[in-house]
Design a protein that fits this description.
single chain; about 300 residues; Immunoglobulin-like; five-stranded mixed sheet; 3 helices; 19 strands
Length: about 300
Amino acid sequence: MALVTGSLALLITAFAQFSPASADPAQASANIAVSPSSAPQGATVTISGTVPVASCSQSDPTQLTSTGFLFPAGGFGPQAPRAADGSFSVTYQIPGSTPVGSYVLGINCGGNPVGISATLQVTATPVSAAIRVSPTAAQPGTNLVISGIVPPTGPVSCGVAQATQLLSNQALFPPNGVGPQVSRDTSGNFNTDYTVPSNAEPGIYTIGVLCAGNDVGITATLTVAQSAPTTTTVAPSTTTTTVVGSGTSIASPTTAPTVSTITTAPHDSPKKSKSHNLAIWLVVVAVLLVVGAGLAVILVGRRGARSGK
């Protein structure tokens, strides 16, 4: 019985030593919290708490601690300056490279752990819905690539099994402005080709997305320009002019698409005709004179012969 009573006393004493009532009052009042307790990668959180100056002098530096994934500087975070009552509050941006998971935050004072902690849950950065069109300016008949994402979860989302369809003006998506359906992968990405109608009027068109019959609320802009005018180029040709009787050919460039030959019949001017006629008469007179002289010589010869006899 005495042995049992002694053992019970020892247990009571040990319990009293480790009970909150026997803990250091200053240590018991130290605390740390993070807000919000769950945040996505890249978000900013507020870490606050109290480290009483009775347990750690205000002149001793206080610094946040965790793992190297949350605090890349070897697990040591920013310093947390304290007020006169030992309270502190600092803001911290979670690195975008921090893996999704749960992280325990603590604090050192004077280089020693205070022995308090808080938990931060890091979640994945939500993906924003988006739509793009390339090129952003085109003429009728041009092929486009329309792509984007409608994530299956998040503030703007739609289940991947839901029908997703493009939406715009009826001139771009005839006859009623509802375009082609697009399929999405498990992450919500889509990509489709589309040809601008040949009769689409020039102007600025807004392209949106319907998912499960609801407007997702994202848009892209396409500028349709007027078709370039068609031009016909006529190659220059050469016209050859030939003057018959002169033996001269003249070639000159022209824009006429044909080759033509102009033939001019020979003709004499009135002055040249008069000179020609005069020459003929002179020849006739000369011939007559020669003939007359010949006859005279013959006659003289005959008379001399008769006189000799």
